[in-house]
Specification:
Layout lengths: L15 H4 L20 H6 L12 E2 L26 H17 L5 H9 L20 E4 L2 E3 L2 H12 L6 E7 L5 H9 E8 L2 H12 L6 E5 L12 E6 L8 H5 L1 E11 L4 E10 L2 E11 L10
Parallel strand pairs: 1-10, 4-5, 4-7, 5-6, 7-8
Antiparallel strand pairs: 2-3, 8-9, 9-10
The protein binds S-adenosyl-L-homocysteine.
The site of S-adenosyl-L-homocysteine (SAH) has 26 residues, from strand 3, helix 6 and strand 5.
Length: 299
């Protein structure tokens, strides 16, 4: 069955009970078991759910860059996977969430959101059986769906200290729309921007079946943000620049947060807080690996 024919409507919207309360679990004392630095294409080729050589790098999105963007592999309707069965996908998603909690994700609201969103809806049918491994996977146009750990981690960082839902969140780099769907579970209103038009359109198709009313998709250059809709209580970048564009810093609400990968080869996740109208603080959190943040639009 194609994913568009099998919407998990019973899961949306989530009840308040599912999305409130914080975990009293302590962060696992051992260092998180993070994904190895491998290309998303290799991830896709790997059938084992456990990457063989874990390294301390979380992979948000791994792909090489090129002026000519390859189209995604064509979808095969005949290609079905056990994960497309709602019962199987619920079980493997629960296992993924358990793994996230062992990796150090403590926020129960974030874990509930990760459990609610069917990640296999956002990848090619041929990759659906790998949708719940902790790895980035190709989505076409040299871009990837981010690794579950880094999606959960960035959302946890944005939510930290906020009781209830985050009022307004902006995501730069919609890709296939997965992280935006997770964000929509923990925020009142989510805006997301993608610069590659076919991906923006694919994300729209992926999200259609989920009927998420509090998510708005924009096509454009996310480096400019959405000044007409600013300020945002949380801003998440899903692509790495050499620095965070000033336009985005200006669009953080006072008291709000921005989380972004920064760097080229050696990237780190940065948390920027806007503490006063003209004052921001920066904290370096951990190593990561994302596709590059690029200016302008494509397509
Ligand atoms: N959020 C995605 C990750 C997508 S990968 C997920 O759920 O897994 C990062 C995305 O950022 C790519 O689709 C890339 O095209 C996009 N991107 C890079 N630079 C951008 C920019 N300036 N504006 C908007 N999107 C950008």
């Amino acid at each position: 069955m194609s994913k568009d024919q099998d919407p998990p409507k019973r899961r949306f919207p989530l009840t308040l009970d599912q999305l409130t309360g914080r975990a009293d679990r302590q962060r696992a004392s051992a260092a998180p078991q993070l994904n190895s630095l491998q290309t998303a294409t290799r991830n896709a080729a790997q059938h084992s759910p456990q990457p063989s050589a874990p390294a301390p790098v979380a992979s948000g999105a791994v792909a090489s860059s090129s002026a000519v963007l390859p189209k995604p592999p064509s979808r095969s309707l005949a290609e079905t996977s056990a994960v497309n069965s709602p019962l199987v996908s619920d079980a493997v998603r629960r296992a993924m969430v358990q793994r996230l909690s062992q990796q150090g994700i403590q926020d129960a609201t974030v874990l509930a959101a990760m459990e609610a969103v069917p990640r296999h809806f956002f990848v090619e049918p041929g990759l659906a059986s790998q949708a719940y491994i902790d790895a980035s996977l190709p989505i076409g146009y040299h871009q990837t769906i981010s690794q579950p750990y880094i999606v959960a981690r960035m959302i946890e960082v944005i939510r930290d200290g906020i009781e209830g839902k985050v009022p307004r969140v902006l995501e730069i780099g919609t890709g296939c729309g997965y992280q935006a769907a997770v964000l929509a579970q923990i925020a009142n209103q989510v805006y997301t921007i993608e610069r590659i038009r076919p991906l923006h359109e694919q994300a729209r198709r992926n999200l259609r079946a989920l009927l998420i009313p509090n998510l708005r998709l924009h096509y454009g250059d996310g480096m400019l943000g959405l000044p007409q809709l600013a300020p945002f209580d949380g801003i998440i970048l899903a692509a790495a620049g050499l620095e965070v564009p000033q336009a985005l810093l200006d669009q953080i609400a006072v008291g709000g947060r921005l989380v972004a990968p920064v760097g080229v080869r050696n990237q780190v996740l940065k948390l920027i807080r806007r503490i006063k109208r003209n004052e921001w603080t920066t904290e370096t959190l951990e190593r990561c690996h994302f596709v590059p943040l690029r200016p302008g639009t494509f397509g």
